[in-house]
Design brief:
Elements: H1 3-51, E1 58-61, E2 66-72, E3 76-80, E4 86-90, E5 94-99, H2 102-105
Antiparallel strand pairs: 1-2, 1-5, 2-3, 3-4
Subcellular location: Cell membrane
Protein name: Preprotein translocase subunit YajC
Membrane topology: Single-pass membrane protein
C-alpha cells in the first residue's frame, strides 16, 4: 500500500471523532459560558453581600420583609421591623441590602 493510501485510510477515523464529539464539546462550552459561569458569579456576589452585613443595615428578606439589623451572629439576624417588633431570621434569608448603616456613611 502506498503512503497516500495509508493516510487516506487513517484520516476518516480522526474526522469521525470530530464529527461525533465536536458538537457535544461545543454544546458544553456554550452551556458553560451561558449558564454555569454567570450562576457562579451571582453566587459569589451573594455570599460577599451576606458576609458584609453589619448592624444598622436596612435589608429585605427573601419573603419581602423590610427591616433594620439589630443583632447579627454567624447564622442568625434579628431585624427590627417597626418600633416594637423584632424578628429573628437565618442569615441566608436576606435577599438584598436596601441601604447601608448610618455609622458606615460617616
Amino acid at each position: 500500500m502506498s503512503l497516500v493510501a495509508q493516510e487516506a485510510a487513517a484520516a476518516p477515523g480522526i474526522e469521525g471523532y470530530l464529527v461525533t464529539y465536536g458538537p457535544l464539546v461545543l454544546m458544553f462550552v456554550v452551556l458553560y459560558f451561558l449558564l454555569i459561569r454567570p450562576q457562579q458569579k451571582r453566587q459569589k456576589t451573594r455570599s460577599m453581600m451576606l458576609n458584609n452585613l453589619k448592624k444598622g443595615d436596612k435589608v429585605v428578606t427573601i419573603g419581602g420583609l423590610h427591616g433594620t439589623i439589630l443583632e447579627i451572629t454567624d447564622d442568625t439576624i434579628i431585624l427590627r421591623v417597626n418600633d416594637v417588633t423584632k424578628l429573628t431570621f437565618e442569615r441566608s434569608s436576606i435577599n438584598a441590602v436596601s441601604s447601608v448603616s448610618v455609622e458606615e456613611k460617616k
